[in-house]
Amino acid sequence: MNIGHRNHPTWWAFALHRISGVVLALFLPVHFQVLALALDGEAVLDGALKWSDQPLVKLAEAGLIFLLAAHLTGGIRLLALEFLPWRNWQKTLVAGSMGLSLGAGLLFLVNAF
Amino acid sequence: MNEVVQTRLWLAQRISAVVLAVCVGIHLAGIIIAVQGGLSAAEIIGRVGGSGVLAAFYGVFVLACAVHAPIGLRAVLAEMTDIKPVSINGIASAFAAVILLMGMQAVLGFLGLGGG
Amino acid sequence: MHKEHPWNTFKEPFILNPMPKMLAVKIWRGGEDGRFQSYDVPRLENQTVLDVVTYVQRKLDPGLSYRFACRVGMCGSCAMTVNGTPRWTCRTHVSRVAEDGQLQIAPLRNLPVIKDLTVDMRDFFDKLAKAGGAFQATKTRTDDFAKIPPSDPRRHHADAGIECIGCAVCYAACDVVAWKPGYLGPAALNRAWTLVNDARDGMGDKRLSMVAGDDGCLACHSQQGCQEHCPMGLSPTAAIAGLKRAVSVAALKSKL
Q1: Chain A residues in contact with B110 (beta carbon < 8 A)
Q2: pLDDT digit string (tens) for C152-171?
Q3: Which of A5, A8, A14 sits opposite C222 (nearest CB)?
Q4: Does domain C22-119 bear CATH number 3.40.50.450?
């Protein structure tokens, strides 16, 4: 694939926003299903939570937190771009969004282990 | 679907995005605080169960998700697949219904669980 | 003798590789199902990509088709894909783009290839019209001039986008155009935004209806490939964001 015209920060920000958006959308039904387990009794939900205690699952969860934070900060960037007067520091916003998202993912990891 | 409906969908996605920005911010902070020391069903139910305020918060959250995600999915499918526009609108509507039903079921379930 | 001062930061230009004597040029030949053909072109100082294409046609392969007119960055006819990136070739120096003396020159993306480096620009120009790109006069030549103060914010918006030369580089750089063939594209929407802000224009909300909807400004994902590549340094993304706001307001007031 030729990425010549794509290799710039705001295109990568778009790609991350799209990928995170699709993953989060597909995760929603799974998330609600796990929560519904609690309604079948604590033991069932505890089973699911125990499964999620594995390091790999925790890492995947941190990934989801990162994607959620990235979609959040990237989305705020887009709202600002679309609804506030135009600013020429778009790339700074992309960098800020990335920093905050990575921070959220790391904070989750630190707290989860 | 004419451009007026399309514009309303776009606006609905932006307005729900503003709501979600607030909700996700609170939710993220909640996750990072709650995950300290591990999670248990009893802890989650004790924290969330039976609270009218939290049920209202998560009710709004689910509603905003049910508006925001399907409209985004509609755009992705329109751009990246060969599915016909009519079918895409059907898929997006069905996805909205699934999110709304499953989400509200979980929210109402936790409200009914009572707890500490 | 030249004395070194700490504030004297001038240095001899640091040259990694001496200029090669020949360029290895690959140029697209044929229609959509064509292929790249190789040519060896002498490397000159102050050589533009258009110079290279012209050399190939004049000296090596008279059958090569390409477009150019002004050669000074005004007419917008010589845009091509140079080493994977859309560029105006008349003002693109080989020294800026030739990686190790290699040049790959292809027709613009997102437009049907007619032959070699020429593309069919019909869609691109039709969309300018579809986006309400024609000025609709409200006065006649017997009326007085419209007086618009230089400080007028709408005038600033219009000024920011008015220098478009219609080269279609933005159109080729846009993924939404590639994914959604009906999408009006950055140049057409930028043109619409300059007219939305033109106090003399009388089309009003009708133009906003023309640029609203799934194929209009709302389809833009702010990837900003358009402003990243615009040779005139314009920002169609900013213009499209302006249209999004105007369309939103019109929709909320039920004026679409």
Answers
A1: 35, 38-39
A2: 999 999 999 999 999 999 99
A3: A14
A4: no
